[in-house]
Design brief:
The protein is α+β, with helices and mostly antiparallel strands. Helices cover 26% and strands 27% of the residues. The structure holds zinc ion (ZN). Zinc ion (ZN) is lined by residues 85, 87-88, 90, 92, 106-107, 109-110.
């Protein structure tokens, strides 16, 4: 149960030290994005994903060997993520932390819910 579904689905794409720090609501977006990146890996065999996280309410995907197309795929996913509730995956809006910076994305129902369960992954077992 601690193994990330992403690690199992994309064994050629994720690096050895792959870490996932996203909540369940973004899993569909992340899975679609990794699917596109795996296609691009046909052109860029060195493409690797090392880290997937949320920063300032947006999806961040870090890795190495990114082509221009891979960067475009990641940029597109980052833009989409700011309208997807991290808790449930329906349409949401950025929420502010102490009225200053964006702390996450929530739908109306989950606006006051703290960050949901992280996607299961053995690398963040200690959380
Ligand atoms: Zn929601």
């Amino acid at each position: 149960m601690n193994k990330s579904p992403l690690r199992e689905q994309f064994p050629t794409l994720v690096g050895e030290h792959f870490e996932v720090w996203i909540s369940e609501g973004w899993l569909t977006l992340v899975t679609e994005t990794l699917g596109l990146l795996r296609q691009e890996q046909g052109n860029m065999p060195g493409l690797r994903i090392d880290e997937i996280k949320q920063k300032w309410g947006q999806l961040v995907i870090n890795g190495e060997g990114f082509s221009e197309r891979a960067n475009a795929i990641v940029d597109d996913a980052r833009e989409k993520s700011s309208t997807i509730c991290e808790v449930c995956g329906i349409q949401g809006d950025p929420i502010l932390s102490r009225g200053r910076h964006v702390a996450g994305v929530r739908c109306a129902e989950h606006v006051s819910v703290k960050r949901g369960t992280l996607v299961a992954d053995e690398s963040n077992k200690q959380v």
